[in-house]
């Protein structure tokens, strides 16, 4: 499957999901991706705010999200969740 996947710099903290959410554009269609705050802290430590930690590690997280999109790992709501 050959997909053009773009990640605009539009991340936000979703309080109800306790996660950083960020969009991916896949062949012109938007897919929502997310990683919960606890996963970010577990991976990268808690010396920074979770949004700042996400921004610092954006490239790695987007690469992981891209692999999950290509593997069609959406949940029932069509979201890609990183753990």
What does this structure look like?
By secondary structure, this protein is an alpha+beta fold. It has a single domain, classed as Double Stranded RNA Binding Domain (2-Layer Sandwich), CATH 3.30.160. Helices cover 34% and strands 29% of the residues. The radius of gyration is 12 Å and the shape is globular.
What are the secondary-structure elements, in order, as H or E?
A: EEEEHHHE
- The helix content is 25-40%
Tell me the fraction of residues in β-strands, as a range: 25-35%
Domain tally = 1
Radius of gyration: 12 Å
Task: Tell how many strands the DSSP assignment holds.
Answer: 5
Number of helical regions: 3
The 3D shape can be described as: globular
Largest sheet, strands/sense/barrel: 5 strands, mixed
Please identify the structural class as seen in this structure: alpha+beta
CATH homology group = Shew3726-like
Write the CATH fold name. Answer: Double Stranded RNA Binding Domain
User: What gap, in angstroms, lies between the N and C termini?
Assistant: 24 Å
Residue windows where pLDDT falls under 50 for at least 5 positions: none
Give the class-level CATH name: Alpha Beta
Provide the CATH architecture.
Answer: 2-Layer Sandwich
* Oligomerization state: single chain
On the 0 to 100 scale, the average pLDDT is: 93
């Amino acid at each position: 499957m050959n997909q053009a996947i773009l990640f605009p710099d539009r991340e936000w903290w979703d309080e109800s999901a306790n996660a950083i959410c960020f969009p991916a554009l896949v062949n012109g269609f938007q897919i929502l991706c997310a990683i919960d705050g606890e996963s970010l802290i577990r991976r990268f430590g808690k010396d920074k705010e979770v949004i700042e930690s996400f921004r610092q590690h954006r490239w790695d997280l987007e690469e992981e999200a891209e692999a999950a999109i290509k593997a069609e790992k959406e949940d029932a709501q069509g979201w890609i969740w990183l753990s």
